Amino acid sequence: MTDSRLERLQAAIPGLRLTTDVADLEHYGRDWTRRWTPAPLAIALPSSVDEVQGIVRWANAEGVAVVPSGGRTGLSGGAVAANGELVLSLERMNRVLDFNRVDRTLAVQAGIPLEAVHNAAREHGLVYPVDFAARGSCSIGGNIATNAGGIRVIRYGNTREWVAGLTVVTGAGEVLHLNRGLIKNSSGYDLRQLMIGSEGTLGIVVEATLRLTDPPPPTNVMLLALPSFETLMQVFAAFRERLTLEAFEFFTDRALHHVLAHGAQKPFDEVHPYYVVTEFAVGDEAREAAAMAAFEYCMEQGLVSDGVISQSDAQAAQLWRLREGITESLAKYKPYKNDVSVRISEMPAFLTQTQALLGQEYPHFDVVWFGHIGDGNLHINVLKPDDTADADFVRQCEHVTKLLAQALERHGGSISAEHGIGLVKKPYLLGTRSAEEIALMRGIKHSLDPRGLMNPGKVFDA
What we know:
This protein is of the alpha+beta class and 462 residues long. It has 15 helices and 16 strands. It has helices spanning 4-12, 22-28, 49-62, 114-123, 140-146, 153-156, 191-195, 232-242, 253-261, 285-300, 313-324, 326-330, 347-361, 390-410, 435-448, and strands at residues 17-19, 42-45, 66-69, 86-89, 96-100, 105-109, 163-170, 175-178, 203-211, 219-226, 245-252, 274-281, 306-309, 336-341, 366-372, 377-383. It has a 7-stranded antiparallel beta sheet with strand order 13-10-12-11-15-16-14, with helices on both faces. It has a 5-stranded antiparallel beta sheet with strand order 5-6-9-7-8. Strands 1-2-4-3 form a 4-stranded mixed beta sheet, sandwiched between helices.
């Protein structure tokens, strides 16, 4: 805290919590990628919009870069501070600010965990439907910054569909109140949507007004075992035609292997190469009959080898654990991750090509696939062998990612479906966005962050 810049920051905002403790610098300076050595200048933990605005104005005066920080559960290096930046953590700004029963909205501070939003909505008989496994540790601000998706996109869409308004501190230190909760608003550019998915490169989301909706109808969960990779999209089509799907998630035998080793319960006596966990609306005899009809059709056609349907909430949770526990079960291996998407109609051809590509390029690596097949999103996790150096492993994986990015470009896909670009995927942005689009992005950043201090080096280089 002897740095004169930090002394001036503390003098400008006397109540600001500021730390340079070594453990704090390491904790707040990294995200789940674990590929960069954290080296922030300090950690600021503001408790109000005024304090955030004061920090950004100080950063402009001192020329100090700022890395906004939520739950740091990202997988693209978007919250890494490795070059003397000030980490601005929003974790103390974690309150529910207002509930409006008429508008069915919930106003929250950006540091509130997703699970707390779920709980607050439930108290009023409503739901905030965006959901994923990191719900207990990720923050709403981070979800907004990456336009997070998750396991129910097939039914509800991404985060941007549920954001009615935002309060943002721009890179120039201005406070913007965007859209103000309106349903219809055709008065010029929608800067709210511009901020969603911007990864903290334009400014800092400090408050959000979230749309809520009715709880879903009663649902059941079914786990399906598939005999081959080729049947996956046929099973999806059969279930989508007959049922109202809440989720349709795919994973491989290698994913199941790691989750079982992590403590999950084995679902079948036999091992199958591919699995699907799907959740769908029930509640009456017709819907329950439709679910059984879908399963029986797939069995008769040889598309499914086995299956189990939940008979209780506890069993549904056990089945979901097989999918939601994958990321946690792989964490100790420091996997190299790809998070890609294509249009659903392109998914069969893309899956076939990708399977061949990964089989050829990773013949001796443990590759774990899973994904949100119902919305065209595939996650590929490559586990580092014990006898391979970290640098060599990353180098080989980046070579394969370049080939994967070329395949995505041919299919009109994206190198980042829901985790952002950050540092990890920056070299491949040009395959997803044109040079003209990237030039416009740079111009937008310059308008809102004229000194280039907001999360610099993420998404693209200035």
